[in-house]
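Archive entry: two folds, one per protein. Generate the first.
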Amino acid sequence: MSVNFYRSQDFTPQGTFFESTGTGPETLVLCHGVGLDHTMWNAQVEALAPHLRVVSYDMIGHGRTPPDPKVTCLADFVGQLEELLDHLGIGQLMLVGFSMGGLVAQGFAKEAAYRLERLVLMNTVYRRSEAELEGVRSRLAVTREQGLSTVADLALERWFDPAFRRANSSIVDQIRDRLLSNDLDAYTTAYRVFVNGDEEVGAALKKVHCPALVMTGSLDVGSTIEIAHRMSRDLRHGSVFVLPGLRHMAPVEDPGAVNQQLLSFFGLTSAGC
């Protein structure tokens, strides 16, 4: 059931579009993945806004945030997040990063781990091996050579199982439309950052001392269970939760299961309730 919350939308001085929902005493910031935008978090915002101030935003060159030809590396996306926090006057925060957004969260932790109250890394990557990088490198080449239509089709095959696609065609179509609406150059830049971001992040999670939760789907072939445990081992207070039967787009594929874990981790309810 949809509930009405205080909600505002605006742009930062540097052009980042953001939405702030709820008026809770603590602030949660949500970082989306490549080719998506802040709306991928709609189900999480609805579940969490009764308890927290929830801020979602569009990364550079995504959604309503325009491309920036000067953007070349992960540090640029981390700088965007920092500018958003400064604009909103946010000091301490809870941070959730999905896929590339998880790399942005790691980059932020590398620079400002002391500002993190809790950290969630969802369906993301960390210190990938050469073998683990093969797939994303090949998809980057496909993006350059064949464009967004092929990229979208390949992404949806990886992100959702066939049964979900058949039963939820309208949701899948919306995501495909979102992928196709991207500026090709901006998408390619962001995906290149996703491919190369491990080099900038390094072992950043060793700096994180706050409670941290790593989540992934049991069937996610890019953000694997092995990578999730690799992250957890570098986190001082890290735990792993594997979402059974899910692929990459866990927040969309099973928002109820994801929301339940987030509410529990943030101390807002008990998992299983």
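Generate the second and append.
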Amino acid sequence: MKLARGEFEIMAKFIKEISGISLEQNKTYLIESRLSDLAESEGVKTFSDFFFKAKFNKILKEKIIDAISTNETSFFRDKTPFEALKYKVLPDLIDSKTSVKGSIPSIKIWSAACSSGQEPYSIAMILMDMLPDIFSKWNITIFATDISDEILRKASVGNFSDFELGRGLSGTFRDKYFTNKNGSWHIKDRVRSMVKFQKINLLEPFRGLGKFDIVFCRNVAIYFDLDTKKKLFDRIAEVLAPGGYLFIGSTETLLGVSDKFASRNYLRAIFYQLK
């Protein structure tokens, strides 16, 4: 199915409203390639008709989001942020938490736009490696969210292919934290139990989340326009604890986006800390 004159603008505006994804005019092929089959399966012959059918149909909106979203991810993606997490951010955080006597120390982390779960599971494995007594002496929360119901179902199950494990995961972590069942790799229950998955649209207000020590919001804001980025990182600042940490994508920057964070460096990694 091809976009007729004026239909790109209609669909691009609609996609932005429901997902935040901003599509330039040269992304005509993206709408056609990712939504044509879905539109045809709904029995419509034009994208205009598809828009009117989807406008008040929650299930169809979710299908459009699933189809248009790019769920590119891998274990320990880009590597350097996880080195900074393991060797700088978490040690500093652990020191500050254990200095407070009389209560069980807690760490609360949010993996926003977590896709199929590799990022929050990577964080969980790092924590388990660093804290042998993690279940008896710590209160750890890893909150993982995405806009897609389908991708969250996959993430919560924790099954991965050889190809998915081969992208970024060491053999040591594979053998320690995964079991092989019928040709697929299943993350062990003790790792999976650390991660709580929930559907959240990053465009909407963050209600009832509490405060986080660390937020990962990587490689999602690149699909948003500047105004949407500013609103997103302002809201993230509001749910970070004082001095909390923020990790964004390796090709992203907060320069000109938010003045609520100070840039920090560790080896080759750049991360941010709430001012």
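Annotation attached to the second fold: The chain has a mean pLDDT of 94. Residues 124 and 191 are 6 Å apart (CA to CA).
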